[in-house]
Amino acid sequence: MFESFYEDIVVGETSEFGKREVTKEEIVDFASKFDPQPFHMDEELAKQSVFGNLCASGWHTASMTMRILVDDMKDRRFAGMGSPGLDKLEWKKPVFPGDILRVQSTPLEKRESASKPHLGLVKTETVVVNQNNEVVMRMVSNMMVLKRNPS
Amino acid sequence: MFESFYEDIVVGETSEFGKREVTKEEIVDFASKFDPQPFHMDEELAKQSVFGNLCASGWHTASMTMRILVDDMKDRRFAGMGSPGLDKLEWKKPVFPGDILRVQSTPLEKRESASKPHLGLVKTETVVVNQNNEVVMRMVSNMMVLKRNPS
């Protein structure tokens, strides 16, 4: 069922994928559930805010990024086994309705798990850019990945 | 309109708040939009996974945490002006349907902004616990906060 494993990850090799359009409806829907601050909910109040326009919750941007990553993992039949967390998450620019997001992903480090012979650990930089090639978000995440050949 | 400002933040002082019940419906709804992996979507497949049961996407847990934080900020009329990002985010344990989440928040550091006389910068540890007092998530975030008295 999986086709892409720990052994296939090349440190330093950047891949780019995804094309997700951000809608006003989704920004407001996400914010009303999880981040009900005026600049994510109300266009008029957002225009008076530091952002200048209605913009997505940073957690919404992170969640849309996750969807792009999961779709790519499924396309590649990648043996990702979840994440213990992030070393860094930076929201660099606001994400507005109509923006189109894509992801640039680069493995920074990989190593075999000391305790689990079937797993490797991979540290990856994920950069999210909009249609103007502006970086809107950047994160460094850790992921567990199955080995094709357990040691 | 605001009542709680940068000057009111006490480094090292932990406050606890929030009481959010996690539902199966919300876990599946969030996952179907943002993190469609089997262990967040399908009870039977989840039972065969490393998690042992249907569990929330880590991004869903982070988003529910944000809602708890925003509700608390509104209750306190806190002058938070958004976040440039996180230094760390750790998913420590799975979050299951029926879990009840609450937040323990501790300011770790505060300093005045060098460039913006009306703002301070606060680094905060946020720990999310379930009804058994198990830590399910931990993050260290940075936030901009208005001063009551700009320097």
TrEMBL record, chains A, B:
Could you tell me which InterPro entries the record lists for this protein? Answer: HotDog_dom_sf (IPR029069), MaoC-like_dom (IPR002539), MCH/BMMD (IPR052342)
Per its UniProt record, what Pfam families does this chain match? MaoC_dehydratas (PF01575)
Q: Cite the CDD domains for this sequence.
A: YdeM
The organism's superkingdom is given as: Bacteria
**Location of the MaoC-like domain:** 12-124
Please identify the protein, giving its name as recorded: Enoyl-CoA hydratase
Q: Which organism is it from?
A: Kordiimonas sediminis
